[in-house]
Amino acid sequence: MAVLSTLRVEQLNKSLKNLSASYLRHRPLVQRVLNISFVLYVLGTTFRGLSSRPAKPSNSTSKKGKGKGKDDSSGRPPRVAVDALFYQRLSRILRIVIPGIKSKEALLLVMHSSLLILRTAISLYVAALDGKIVASLVRAEPAQFAFNILRWLLVAIPATWTNSWLTFVQKKLAIAYRTRLTEVVLKEYLGGDEEEDKDRKVYYQLSNLDDRIKNPDQMITHDIQRFSTHLAAIYSNLAKPVLDVILYNYQLSQNVGAEGLLVLTILVQSTAALLRRVTPPFGAYAAMSAQLAGALRHTHSRLAEFAEEIAFMGGEETEKMLVERDYATVVLHERKVLRRRWWFGCAEEGLVKWTWGAFGLVLCAIPVFFKLPGMENVDLGGRTEGFVTNRRLLLSSSDAFGRVMYSYKDLSELAGYTARVSLLLDTMEDIKKGKFEKALVSSASIEENAKILQGRGEVMFSENIEFENVPIVTPNGDILVRSLNFSIKHGQHLLIVGPNGCGKSSLFRILGGLWPVYGGIVRKPPPSDFLLIPQRPYLSVGTLRDQVIYPHTKEDMQARGITDVDLLRILAAVQMENVVDREGGWDVTREWRDALSGGDKQKIAWARLFYHNPKYAILDEATSLVPPDMEGRMMDHATELGITLLTVSHRPSLWKYHHMILHYDGQGGYVFTKLDAEKRLALQQEKQTLENKLLDVPKWKARLAELKAIEAGLA
Ligand SMILES: Nc1ncnc2c1ncn2[C@@H]1O[C@H](COP(=O)(O)OP(=O)(O)OP(=O)(O)O)[C@@H](O)[C@H]1O
Q1: Can you give the pTM of this predicted structure?
Q2: Is the distance from the beta carbon of residue 474 to the nearest atom of ligand 1 less than 6 Å?
Q3: Where would I find the beta strands (DSSP E) of 297-398?
Q4: ipTM for the assembly
Q5: Which of 210, 484, 502, 510 to mutate to test the pocket of ligand 1 (most atoms within 8 A of CB)?
Q6: How far is the CA of 444 from the centre of ligand 1 (A)?
Q7: What are the tens digits of pLDDT across the range 301-354?
Q8: From CA 388, how far away is CA 393, in angstroms rounded?
Q9: CA–CA distance from 508 to each of 24, 297, 328, 616, 627 (Å)?
Q10: What are the ABC transporter domain coordinates in residue numbering (predicted)?
Q11: How is domain 449-675 classified at the architecture level of CATH?
């Protein structure tokens, strides 16, 4: 029995020896397989880690928002996660910011990549040199030590040069991305150079006809800038660490054996997976931060814009409450993010720096305690050199791996900004196609109204204006007039009257191409043939001349053969020629909104009308602040210039300048007829006289009762 068991042990020993001998024989192959598997594994896990993060329920919006990245009804930011949708959005934006392989951005990326590789190569060299320096110290070789220090100083030159260049190129990339994106967005937002772009008013429709974007100004300035900075950084935060992990670990496996590395990788990856599971949704937080900051800025800009009105009404308390409410929301969110960042930072550092550090030290000790096959016996100096080099490689590698982990956080934030930029691009694209999303009034769901809202009318070009069965519908689906029919010829001035909110200005918005036509046929000249003078005219940033010729430039004006003397004549037509001397000449720049009175602003707007001399003028209470004699003079001058007037005004004094009248009743009905000003005025006067008389009736009745009482007393 004992002999049998001894035989078995011997057999086992023999087969173990054979196995070990065969392993040693094939070890170089095993090492190679392990190294290749490691590279594939790093690339694979990085790719998987970055590409398949499911959205947490708290980050995702309603089904309605799915795929498009819209705000949902609760006002939460668009769905944000590092998922397929993010990559889809990102690849679309990448095509904008890197338009081709020969573009400046592609060149900068190549430069950036080369510098990143150079930096890793330098780090590898420094790791080996560090080991050599310590070894020469341990061996007490002063000449060798001095020589190594010289090499150290020499390598510092390309090392510092590379780092500065990396920062420089990365910042340049961020600016280049931002410029590309801003160009594209502005082209969509304010129109491009092509003729078809000219009549698109995306900037108007974005804020008036659509609810998706509350503050486009913030998106175009702040969010695009943040996106570009993150995108430029993500490349070095991701590509470089991945490359580093591969190169450092390859070098390490040469020094300590691929087997140890395999064990280390398993430990690191399993703990990293654990950390990933508990990572808070930083992308959604970034998107929410941007949205809340935008809302706060919007409240402040409203306060600045309406400062005078608020000051007169003493609305400071209310405004303060609004600002404080928005600020509190921002702070609440930032505090929540800060708390989550705090504990996540602790967990991250504890794991990445300390736990993985301990694993690494054990790995570095392997060649010290065990003789690895194929490795020569080394002295104390050699062992120290190996340990120092391996430790440096390991530190660099764990730092690189840590950065791959951190880059997930960066990537989440990038996903947040990508969602914001995509939302802007998507919404503008929809608007160009005439697709709007706006909360509708309840009456919009009534079957008959819904049918009108789904329809689209035709717009045809004509010198005259004709509306054929055109409904007037507000952007939130309120139907003001079901079917409007009227026509005027060029030269026939039209007066539009009716109660407040009946749709007088809305008609102009359709004429100007700002609102969609939901049905029927609109025949009209192009928007460039119309010029609008509202009650509070717009005054631009620029010189006094710019106010009169807006939106022309001085060069446009000169190209039309118009001089400052002609402009002065135009100003004389509105009795404003003194303003040039008063303000200090044509080239003086002021905040004209504050420098001119309400009436002067209206007169400048009329001067602008005379300068441009369009086919049609839309006058929306445009003379409400000027004296009646001036009003008549301006109307006459416009008629002399051949401008057809489309006027909204409550002043009967203006009737005599118009040929036709469109009278809304405020209940969805209207009358379109010839305007006989004299007859209308006579009727108006008679009506007024009767109304005045009716006011006296109660007094007469009381007197009659008094007289009757006196009479009864006398009897
Ligand atoms: N951007 C918008 N989004 C939603 N509704 C709008 C928008 N602009 C105007 N409206 C609505 O359309 C309706 C008609 O407005 P419109 O400006 O045409 O009135 P109006 O007849 O000119 O009145 P007023 O004499 O008071 O200026 C109003 O109820 C207004 O609230």
Answers
A1: 0.71
A2: yes
A3: none
A4: 0.94
A5: 502
A6: 16
A7: 889 888 877 887 888 899 999 999 999 999 999 999 999 989 888 888 887 777
A8: 9
A9: 89, 31, 41, 11, 25
A10: 465-690
A11: 3-Layer(aba) Sandwich (3.40)
